[in-house]
Amino acid sequence: MPDTVPPSSPAPSRRLDHPPRVVVTRHLMPTVEARLGELFDARCNSGDEPMSRDELVAAMRECDVLVPTVTDRIDAEMLAEAGDRLGLIANFGAGTDHIDLKAAAKRRILVTNTPGVFTEDTADLTMAGIIGVPRRVREGVELIRSGQWTGWTPTALLGRKLAGKVLGIVGMGRIGQAVAHRARAFGLEIAYHNRKPLPEAVERMFGARYVETLDGLVQEADILTLHCPASESTRGMIDARRIGMMKEGASLINTARGDLVDQEALIDALESGHLAGAGLDVYPDEPHVDERLIRHPNVMTLPHIGSATREGREESGHRVIANIRVWADGHRPPDQVLTGLA
Length: 342
Prior knowledge:
By secondary structure, the chain is of the alpha/beta class. It has helices at residues 30-39, 53-62, 76-80, 101-106, 119-132, 137-145, 174-184, 200-206, 214-220, 240-245, 263-272, 291-295, 310-328, and strands at 21-24, 41-43, 65-67, 88-90, 110-112, 166-170, 189-193, 208-210, 223-226, 250-254, 275-280, 299-301. Helix content is 35%, strand content 14%. The chain has a seven-stranded parallel beta sheet with strand order 8-7-6-9-10-11-12, with helices on both faces. A five-stranded parallel beta sheet has the order 2-1-3-4-5, sandwiched between helices.
């Protein structure tokens, strides 16, 4: 998840003497859109159809503020065509891997996000996979719905118990820690890999231990769950080699980004039986979901709903509004994203 401390080369503040024109790329919660309309010259996407590349460029040419979402890819070429009016990209959501932050900084365009809003929601959905995949919940639901269930037997749909198993958490930021907090109550042993260890007091609080290498964590996890952003260094990090290192019968949970996993290698491991199952809320080519994942009896395929709660979506929208208001007043928005440029 990107940092939100001010960058070392900040874009200039712009105190506007008029309500900023704001273009919102997707349909947001009604209360959020109503407030946007009250405060700004807001153009909302009531049809909720994703904007094309050309439509995004046209929007950036005519607005002071663009409010995109994770489905909107904004690259350097698009920003180069944006013109001089655009001063703020107020992203709806925490992840910013769909925005070229360095290109935005070079154009002196501020970028904000809404960090922490969806932490609890995403952790809750992650737990659904952590519990549901080892206990073969999808298979049980399908058995009932197909009318093929003939009653209880001692050996039907045997899964794996959670207590005493190792939950490997890749990325121990806000969401990873929220997952650890929940998982501990189920008797799971918490191991994690991060860029650096957490403070000892935090580790004690979660009953977590640090594993220095990702390879080491992959090898000992009974359930591996991913909670890191997509970047050049993390793209494809769970590749064929690492999937091959996982325990026989282990499970993989991904509610972070689809690009973190080599999907072909994952499907091969599922079809061979090397992995018992997977819980997936994200995919490398959304909204396309590979038919082999859909057909697999123990893969929970969810439609990117980790943040899909009324409360979270409203809070995120109001955080976007707060960032716009502070920026339009000529001050630094509270959730400005670090660009990394000197």
